[in-house]
Amino acid sequence: MTLFNIGFLKFTVIDMVDVLLVGYFFYRLLLLLKGARSLQLLIGLIFFFVIGLIAYWLDLSMVKWFISNIAAVGILILVIILQPELRRAFARLGQSRILRMLLRQESKSAIDEIIRATEKLSDMHYGALIVLENNIRLSNIIETGKSMNATVSQELLQTIFTPYTPLHDGAVVIKGDQIVAASCSLPLSQNPAYHRLHGMRHKAAVGATEETDAFVVIVSEETGQVSYASGGKLFRDLHLQELKSKLDEIFISQ
Questions:
Q1: In this model, does residue 38 exceed pLDDT 70?
Q2: Where does a domain end: 92, 115, 146?
Q3: Across 6-10, 44-48, 223-227, which has the greatest mean pLDDT?
Q4: In this structure, are residues 152 and 195 in contact, taking their beta carbons and an 8 Å threshold?
Q5: CATH code for position 201
Q6: 162 lies in the same domain as 74
Q7: Do 119 and 244 belong together in one domain?
Q8: Do 55 and 64 form a contact (C-beta atoms < 8 A)?
Q9: What's 8's DSSP letter?
Q10: Proportion of the chain above pLDDT 70, given as a percent
Q11: Is 113 in the same domain as 18?
Q12: Taking a C-beta distance cutoff of 8 angstroms, is the pair 123, 224 a contact?
């Protein structure tokens, strides 16, 4: 069924479905690859694609030769540059809503213990990195630390981050109401905006949330200030009630 004509071209219902599907694909791709670097590259790719269509339409031989020869190499380079964003995007596609529902109740009790521990650690100026696993598994981070299987409690967190104890240097990873690993290494942020941050904890916290949907609580050893990192962004100098509200919003309410 023809909807309308553009010159000698007929635009049918199938063509409309085709355009809508491609448009939806690019919309989802923009959502998954959100971020200044990936968005700019995607816009550049779209521009390159449009130039290619024009070249083939006008039969520009040199431009057609150039595009056909660099297309394969360009795609490979793009995949390498966007590796972190693509890994995060595919990880999001594998998120499990059922698992989230099962862990929700466990997370509630863990959050109360984390808040109490954060308050004590802040008062004593004990540096801390507490990573809460969300939908995306943190196997790569967990493997860098010491495996544990202990219920989250204020006392245990406080003990782990007490200076000069064997596990105090690094991050704790929490899944549901269980501490699954301690003394873990986190990847440093690749965002230039955070390169001048003072303290490796904050850079590491942001880095851990750039490629996953983890939530990281940070306590500064120097100032005792409480911050958190989420979605590749850092939120500093928080009141404990603000932190608890955010944790409830992410792990309980949704």
A1: no
A2: 92
A3: 223-227
A4: no
A5: 3.40.1700.10
A6: no
A7: yes
A8: yes
A9: T
A10: 63
A11: no
A12: yes
Spatial CA neighbour of 240 closest among 154, 161, 149, 145: 154
The range of the structural domain enclosing residue 51 comes to: 2-92
The secondary structure of residue 192, as a DSSP letter, is G
Distance separating alpha carbons of residues 63 and 51, to the nearest angstrom:
9
Tens-place pLDDT, residues 138-190? 999 999 999 999 999 999 999 999 999 999 999 999 998 899 999 999 999 88
For the chain, the helix, strand and coil percentages under 3-state DSSP, each to the nearest 5: 55, 20, 25
Tokens of 231: 């979605």
92, 124, 157 - which closes a domain: 92
- Yes or no: say if 56 and 47 are a contact pair by the CB < 8 Å rule: no
pTM: 0.61
Total tally of structural domains belonging to the chain = 2
User: Does residue 20 share a domain with residue 54?
Assistant: yes
Neighbours of 123 (CB within 10 A): 10
